[in-house]
Amino acid sequence: MRSINGLAWCAQAVMEATEAMKEASIGAQAGGTSEIAPGFEPERIATHLSGCAEQLGRAPLSGLAAEVAQQQAARLRELALEPPQDLEALERNLTVMEEKLVSALNATMAETDLLTLREESARELAPYRSRMKTEQIRQVEQQFLRKRLLEKCDLPRLSLFYMSRQ
Q1: pLDDT, tens only, 71-83
Q2: How far apart are CA 116 and CA 156, in angstroms?
């Protein structure tokens, strides 16, 4: 704790905070840099996107879910052909695509199947509910349901963070 001795101290404190902010931001990438992050080489990304497209293409779906899966598969094939310029933008795009797919699955899946998944989620979370806030519980439930829904339909996670480690 410092005492304020005048305006000169404020200027020094601002300079210290600025330096601390610079040090904290070291390693943060500026948008549009051409440096490739280890593990996110264009070939690996293309392989991941192509594999996801293939898995979506052969998924045993019907109706709206099948239509959305085919659209997403076509888009993934397009993305696989383009070298990624901005990984964050690509990841956002993949997240939106996955959300659209999950929404279609929720709309077309039988209520009994969705109810079973929600009951399973409630059982899994029961021991932890007392230690979690409502927001955390809702977020974990949503993540659990998304994961189980995709697994049940034999669909891939599209995020770059689910790329194989090979």
Answers
A1: 999 999 999 998 8
A2: 21
